[in-house]
TrEMBL record:
Biological classification of the source: Bacteria, Bacillati, Actinomycetota, Actinomycetes, Pseudonocardiales
Boundaries of every N-acetyltransferase domain copy: 207-355
Species of provenance: Amycolatopsis magusensis
Top-level taxon of the source organism: Bacteria
InterPro entries: ACT-like_dom_sf, ACT_dom, Acyl_CoA_acyltransferase, GNAT_dom
Annotated protein name in UniProt: GNAT superfamily N-acetyltransferase
Length: 357
């Protein structure tokens, strides 16, 4: 627990030494109430740096950022607020750098999460002024357990949820709505990223990249029939002559992952996959490009797009299984602007680093 935060019920006297505090004051929504509080704070030598009014059932919750007078204790401040007929719902340390209009701060936070999805939990913690935010599997989130308003669950996909906790004050609906709006915006960004895009091959042919879906099974089966046994061997590492139809749905809709198709006219000419690890390790990528579409930059385009989708899902590293002496995937990785050290000869694994931002 963050020892710099305290609730109004705590009576330990803490002196201010050039610090800044964030106060949550519950009061009646009636004329003059806020004026009485500000006058009392002025009498105590507090300098008010920021104010936000949040509607709550039965009144309002005013959040003030103040710089207290030297020697003023939190308990004394709480008692002064109570003497004006109001309730101090929480006091915590603040940072003057946080004094940004809330909507602007939320948009800036969303921008940071777009640039680096792996920091989503940290961004949500900042938006909510929470003690901690953790990512847990959906079946462990238990949204019914609210802990008196000090705990809130935010689903972020079919596989997980962010759990926010705050000891110094309960979450209020305005804050929850703001956080949900930010998460909704980020989900829309990810969905738009996963939408179709057009790439131009080195021979001038234009190809559409889009996510695979169950209706593509026949087209993906046809892709495999147009691939040579050598191409299939490099993809599946076995003497496969054609793909069993029972594999097609799993190729298009891999568990926890996604597929990416390259479409030329009505034909699927390449297939890529991104499959997150079940144990939290790097996600795995794989490619299959029809023989007559190889060496045209299509593998590079697929890998680049899969890396973008992986980064949007919070991955910073991908892996690809390569046979000894097979360097086509690594060449495509480097052409895509990614970094990949030489593959481990024993493991046969190529590690692909996704640059931040």
């Amino acid at each position: 627990m963050d020892m710099g935060r305290t609730t109004a019920a705590q009576t330990t006297v803490e002196t201010a030494t050039g610090t800044t505090w964030r106060l949550r004051i519950r009061m009646d929504d009636s004329p003059g109430t806020l004026a009485r509080i500000t006058i009392r704070l002025a009498d105590l030598g507090c300098n008010i740096l920021g104010l936000q009014v949040m509607p709550v059932p039965g009144g309002v919750l005013d959040e003030l950022v103040v710089r207290p007078a030297p020697g003023l204790g939190r308990a004394e401040l709480v008692e002064a607020i109570a003497a004006e007929g109001c309730e101090c719902a929480g006091v915590t340390d603040a940072d003057v750098r946080e004094l940004v209009e809330p909507a602007t701060a939320a948009l800036a936070a969303a921008g940071r999460a777009v640039d680096d999805p792996a920091k989503l939990a940290d961004v949500l913690r900042d938006v909510l002024a929470a003690d901690m935010v953790t990512l847990v599997p959906s079946n462990e989130a238990n949204p019914a357990r609210t802990e008196g308003g000090h705990r809130r669950v935010f689903p972020v996909g079919p596989e997980g949820a962010l759990v926010a906790r705050r000891s110094w004050a309960p979450f209020v609906q305005l804050e929850i709505a703001r956080a949900q709006a930010m998460l909704g915006l980020l989900a829309a960004v990810r969905a738009n990223l996963a939408g179709p895009s057009v790439v131009t091959c080195t021979d001038g042919a234009m190809v559409v990249l889009r996510p695979g879906r169950p209706a593509d099974t026949d087209a993906v089966f046809a892709l495999h029939t147009r691939c040579s046994t050598d191409t299939l061997f490099h993809r599946y590492h076995t003497g496969l002559r054609t793909v069993p139809r029972r594999w097609l749905h799993r190729l298009l809709m891999p568990p926890r992952g996604l597929s990416l198709l390259a479409i030329a006219g009505r034909e699927v000419v390449a297939l890529g996959q991104l499959i997150p690890s079940a144990n939290g390790g790097p996600a795995e990528v794989s490619l299959l490009v029809a023989d007559d579409w190889q060496r045209k930059g299509l593998g590079t385009a697929l890998l680049g797009r899969l890396a973008e989708l992986g980064a949007a899902a919070g991955h910073r590293e991908l892996v690809a299984v390569c046979l000894p002496g097979q360097d086509a995937v690594r060449r495509a990785v480097l052409r895509a602007g990614l970094h990949a050290p030489e593959p481990d000869a024993k493991e046969g694994v190529l590690r692909i680093e996704i640059p931040a931002g």
